[in-house]
Amino acid sequence: MDDRFENFTVTVLKLGKLVQKIKLFEMESYGLKAIHVMCIYFAGLAPVTAVELCRLTSEDKAAISRALSLLKQKGYITYPAGAYNAEISLTEEGKKLCGFINVRATAAADFAGKDLTDADRAVLYKSLSSIAANLESYYKGLLKNGR
C-alpha cells in the first residue's frame, strides 16, 4: 500500500508544530508568540504593510492586526496611526529583536539540516516549493469546480 498521504501529511504537520514550538520558546522571554516572529522577520527585510504580511505569513487580517498592535505597544515596530495599509518599520529595539530572531532561526535551520548536503537541501526546497504550488493549484481547482 502507498503511504504517501500519511507520510507527507504527518511529517508536514510535525514540522509545522515543531517550528511553532521553537518560535514560542524563543519568544517567551519577550512576551511574544510565534506570529510575532514572522512579522518582525519580514519587517526586518524591508518596510512591509499589513496586507503584505497577511500574504507572506498566510495569517488572516485580524491575527496580523493583533500582532502588530502588540509589537507597536512593546516598541518593536512603528507605523503611522490611522493610515490604511501603512508601511511598518522596525524601531531600534525591533532591529535588535530581529537580529536575535535571525541568529536563532539560522541556528535552528542549521541544526535541522545538519545531515543534508547543499545538493540535498536544494532538492528538498525545490521539491517542497513544487508540492506547495501544486497543492495550491489543486485547491483552487476544487474551489472553481465545487464539490
Question: How would you sum up this structure, described in words?
Answer:
The chain has 147 residues and is mainly α. It has helices at 4-27, 34-45, 50-57, 61-73, 92-112, 118-145, and strands at 77-78, 89-90. It contains six helices and two strands. Helix 2 (34-45) crosses helix 5 (92-112).
Features:
Arc Repressor Mutant, subunit A, 2 strands, two-stranded antiparallel sheet, MarR family transcriptional regulator, WH-like_DNA-bd_sf, single chain, WH_DNA-bd_sf, mainly alpha, 147 residues
Q: What is the count of β-strands?
A: 2
Radius of gyration: 18 Å
> Main sheet: which strands, in order across?
1-2
Model regions low in confidence, pLDDT < 50 over at least 5 residues: none
Query: Which structural class fits the helix and strand makeup?
Result: mainly alpha
Can you tell me the overall shape? globular
Give the terminus-to-terminus CA distance. 27 Å
CATH architecture of the largest domain: Orthogonal Bundle
CATH-level-4 superfamily name of the largest domain: Winged helix-like DNA-binding domain superfamily/Winged helix DNA-binding domain
CATH class label of the largest domain: Mainly Alpha
- Average pLDDT, rounded to a whole number, is 95
> What is the count of distinct domains?
2
Helices and strands, in N-to-C order? Answer: HHHHEEHH
Q: Approximately how much helix is present in the residues? A: over 70%
Strand content: under 5%
What's the tally of helices? 6
CATH-derived topology of the largest domain: Arc Repressor Mutant, subunit A
Main beta-sheet annotation: 2 strands, antiparallel
InterPro entries: WH-like_DNA-bd_sf, WH_DNA-bd_sf
Protein name: MarR family transcriptional regulator
